[in-house]
Design a protein that fits this description.
heterodimer, A: about 625 residues, Multidrug efflux transporter AcrB transmembrane fold, Alpha-Beta Plaits, 4-stranded antiparallel sheet, B: about 300 residues, two-stranded parallel ribbon, about 65% helix
């Protein structure tokens, strides 16, 4: 009685071996490293490796390893000091086409990596970094779509010689077209219905003599507009994060209008916020030299012109017509003007933009052109208990310069305040504009020292809690207690192995979940051992008691654990970030404990007591 | 019903009226506190900005306050966090002003003072997020309870579901009440702890129920109250042992896990103690009061049921 078959032992040994294998990488820790990836046309290859090696040799920095992955190169260092020095050196050697980000690379030895074993993935609260939750201003996205339709419908009507008075955007959304007469309106309706099936048309009941037509996007088109705005924003955010040079960033959609951005290791949150949230774009306009600025200041702004201010506060009158927008920019680099030495940004346009720009500037040589910097901000503020979205648009003229010759594919912008500004503007122009303004609605930043503190304290709690439970069980249940202790240790190994294998994120609450599991995992054993004690007290033989103890406790354990899993499941589905980590470790702990507390302890008990005559059982 | 092989012979059910009074007292105190002084919600729920900074040496709070007083953050709450070197600064939601930039402004102000300061943590939660979290948290709690009710009704019996849910609601109210009375920070991790408490307390209750069901089926004679009492005694060692090991590790977490996780471990400690109590004194008495009887738990085979009714 109480003997396990060979295959059961084999199964246990296999699980233990595999578990240990995948838990092992966590003992090796991580090395400070540089992650080098190509930001544009460039490519990461062995050649990149050579240039990096050369740069490091020249700077006299030792590295302890270099791995070429798909599209990135990871270089490891002994300490953080050489990592930082190396970043400078490598950046300089590789130039702008590559992003050189600080990272922690697992120091897993090669023989373990063959099995795909990696250490656990640490959450931001343990490794330090920034977490942002951003909300896309969907109203703005829909408004933008309306603006696009105004221009499209205008062209369509004009091309087909349908006469209308005005097309305007209505305050509640949608457009209003005013036609000359009923006949023109009828033609207009036919034309719009043919070309824009996604629009809903309605003739408002208005005073006689007015021929209005209300136009709005149908529900599907509005949905599509929102979806596209979110997608495009995610793409732009991803580009910007890459430009910032962050290793292992997370950029993820959450719900229908929110985006989560996680930047491990980033400390300068102010800059990260500025860059990610910026909606900055550029517009090039001619100055209006025919009219007087003073008139405009007095409130008589001429038609076709708009009043702007330069950074110095100087008013300037610009023509309404935009010559070029930032959309055509394919590259932008910060640098210094060769003559004045002041910071500038060199811009490269795509073919279409270059043609448009050269056409537009051909007739304007000798006149003044202004570069307008436009930034939209959206903020949610509380006013009298209500959430109100506040919008703000900043339009600044960053410089006015005389066009000396016809401009083409490449040109420069000057008039920037600092090298930082030039650098950030170049970055934003390269990464492209956001489809709609975004607002940061949640931020969680953990400094590196707190991250390390959290790891140390969490680890300490697990150790102390674990040892206390080990002692307690051994004292209370003697040999059986020791079997439970082995099971508990194994339980920890399996949790770590599963976390590593799934590359689930370990967070501080996640560690708390492990601590809690350590306390609760022995429950199954307590149930079994109490049952065995009871059976013995009932006068059963030791062997029969062991057998019955395990047998009878099983359904109880299963029922109790399944209900706890329910709670963990709900926690997972509701939770965000760290809370999810708690739910994950708690669930894994429960599942693993079912195996270790039942099968593993039974196998040990069977090895010790099974298959022989027992007079007495000490438990 | 007396069982000679049983270790304990405590009359739990005899004291159930006393226990009932005790529970009512705790729940009333919790509710009174929740109504009068409410919960001290963390910024996860209220929205606002929190900045934790570390200084090289111990720093006077008044010094930090005076630095902030000259700025727009004069009404910021400044307190120590864990040690005299760590300072926590909280800025509430300001009417008509809300921005993710507040934290950067605070840090800039603090950096201007003579002492070097290190940013340990920044949390900013916009008002729209706080509301969502409150709502989601409440919903999660309700979903968990509904799922549990259905599972127990399916695995045991409807009356047991009522007893288990009564115990869980009891635990949650008293744990939340504890946070209200102590005015401890109620943040997102505490909410997670509450759900874990539900899981734990339920675990305890299920073990007892399992034994009650077994005894109802096995023991032919005896009033329900005696069978429940015997079941409680049989599972008592286990209930206490598991609570003890769990409390051991939670105490370790409370003292060693650091300031950030402290409200979380406090919620679990209180919850485990109350959960242990409720699995004995709430879940079973309520099930009994609902009128549980042998017939409710007999296997649903027709023959067995008929046999039972014959004397």
């Amino acid at each position: 009685m109480n003997r396990y078959s060979f295959w059961k032992y084999l199964l246990i040994i296999v699980i233990v071996a595999v578990g240990s294998l995948y838990a092992l990488p966590n003992l090796y820790g991580k090395d400070p490293a540089l992650q080098i990836s190509a930001s544009r046309s460039a490519e990461v290859s062995e050649l990149t490796g050579f240039s990096v090696e050369e740069a490091l040799d020249k700077a006299g920095i030792d590295h302890i390893g270099m791995d070429l992955g798909t599209n990135n190169l990871v270089v490891r260092f002994q300490d953080e000091e050489s990592q930082l020095k190396a970043q400078e050196a490598v950046k300089e050697a590789l130039g702008r086409s590559y992003t050189v980000a600080l990272n922690l690379a697992p120091a897993t030895p090669d023989w373990l990596r063959v099995f795909g074993a990696e250490p656990m993935y640490l959450g931001l609260d343990l490794r330090g970094g920034v977490h942002f939750l951003m909300e896309v201003d969907m109203e703005a996205a829909v408004a933008k779509a309306d603006e696009r339709y105004i221009s499209d419908i205008r062209t369509q009507l004009r091309d087909n010689r349908i006469r209308y008075k005005t097309i305007t955007r209505r305050r509640e959304g949608g457009l209003l077209i005013r036609f000359r007469d009923a006949d023109q309106r009828q033609k207009g309706i036919a034309e719009i219905e043919d070309n824009f099936p996604e629009l809903e048309l309605e003739q408002p009941q208005l005073d006689a003599g007015e021929f209005h037509l209300a136009v709005k996007l149908n529900e599907a088109a509005v949905k599509e507009t929102r979806r596209l705005a979110l997608q495009q924003n995610i793409t732009t955010l991803r580009k910007r994060v890459n430009e910032l040079g962050v290793a292992e960033p997370v950029i993820q959609q959450q719900g229908l209008e929110r985006v989560v951005v996680q930047l491990p290791g980033v400390q300068d949150t102010a800059r990260a916020k500025d860059i990610l949230g910026a909606t900055a774009t550029l517009e090039f306009r001619m100055t209006d030299q025919e009219h007087d600025v003073q008139d405009a200041l007095d409130g008589r702004v001429p038609a076709g012109a708009k009043l702007y201010y330069e950074r110095s506060g100087e008013p300037v009158l610009l023509k309404k017509q935009v010559m070029l927008t930032g959309d055509y920019i394919i590259d932008a680099a910060a640098g210094f003007d060769s003559v004045t030495g002041s910071p500038n940004v060199s811009i490269t346009l795509d073919g279409k933009g270059a043609k448009r720009f050269s056409d537009a500037t051909a007739d304007e040589v000798g006149r003044n052109m202004a570069v307008v910097f436009i930034e939209n901000k959206t903020e949610t503020v509380e006013r009298d208990g209500e959430m109100v979205k506040r919008k703000e648009t900043i339009e600044e003229v960053i410089n006015v310069a005389t066009i000396r010759e016809q401009l083409g594919k490449r040109f420069q912008i000057t008039g920037l305040d600092s090298t930082e500004e030039a650098r950030d503007l170049a970055l934003l122009l390269r990464a492209g504009a956001l489809a709609a303004p975004i607002e940061i609605i949640e931020e969680r930043t953990i400094g590196p020292s707190l991250g390390q503190d959290n790891i140390d304290k969490g680890f300490m709690s697990v150790q102390v809690g674990f040892i206390l439970v080990l002692i307690f069980m051994a004292v209370w249940y003697k040999a059986f207690g020791l079997a439970a202790d082995v099971a508990l240790a194994l339980n920890l190994v399996l949790i770590v192995a599963l976390l590593s294998l799934l590359q689930a994120t370990l967070t501080l609450p996640g560690i708390a979940g492990i601590v809690l599991t350590v306390g609760m995992a022995v429950d199954a054993n307590v149930l079994i051992f109490q049952r065995i004690r009871e059976e013995i007290r009932n006068g059963n033989s030791p062997q029969a008691s062991i057998h019955a103890g395990y047998e009878k406790a099983f359904t109880t354990i299963a029922d109790a654990n399944i209900t706890t899993l329910f709670a963990a499941l709900v926690l997972f589905s509701f939770g965000t970030g760290p809370i999810k980590g708690f739910a994950v470790t708690l669930s894994l702990g429960i599942v693993c404990s079912m195996f270790t507390a039942i099968m593993v302890t039974r196998s040990i008990v069977n090895l010790i007591y099974g298959g022989r005559k027992l007079e007495k059982l000490v438990i | 019903m007396d069982n000679p092989t049983q270790k304990f012979h405590l009359d739990f059910m005899g004291k159930r009226r006393l226990a009932f009074a005790f529970s009512v007292l705790l729940i009333s105190a919790s509710i009174v506190s929740l109504v009068t002084q409410k919960l001290n919600f963390g910024i996860d729920f209220t929205g606002g900005t929190l900045v934790e900074v570390g200084y090289r040496q111990a720093v006077e709070l008044d010094q930090v306050r005076s630095v902030l007083a000259a700025t727009e953050f004069s009404d910021a709450v400044v307190q120590y966090f864990g040690s005299a070197k760590d300072v926590l600064i909280r800025v509430a939601q300001v009417q008509g002003k809300n921005s993710a930039d507040i934290s950067d402004a605070i840090i800039a102000v603090l950096r201007q003072s003579d002492q070097p300061v290190e940013v340990r943590r920044v949390e900013f939660v916009g008002p729209q997020v706080g509301e969502d979290l409150k709502e989601d948290g409440g919903l999660a709690m309700i979903y968990a309870l509904i799922m549990i009710f259905i599972y127990i009704a399916f695995r045991f019996q409807r009356l047991f579901s009522v007893g288990a849910i009564a115990a869980l609601v009891h635990d949650v109210i008293i744990t939340i009440g504890f946070f209200s009375i102590m005015q401890m920070d109620f943040d997102l991790t505490v909410l997670a702890a509450l759900l874990a408490v539900i899981g734990y307390s339920l675990n305890d209750t299920i073990v007892v129920f399992d034994r009650i069901r077994e005894n109802f089926r096995r023991v032919r004679k005896g009033a329900p109250v005696d069978i429940i009492n015997a079941s409680l005694n049989q599972t008592l060692s286990r209930t206490l042992m598991t609570s003890l090991t769990t409390l051991l590790v939670l105490t370790a977490l409370f003292f060693l896990g650091g300031e950030v996780i402290r409200p979380f471990s406090a919620a679990l400690i209180v919850g485990v103690i109350i959960g242990t109590y409720s699995s004995i004194y709430v879940a079973s008495p309520v099930t009994l009061a609902m009128g549980i009887s042998k017939q409710d738990l007999m296997p649903v085979e027709k023959e067995g049921a008929e046999k039972d009714r014959s004397p």
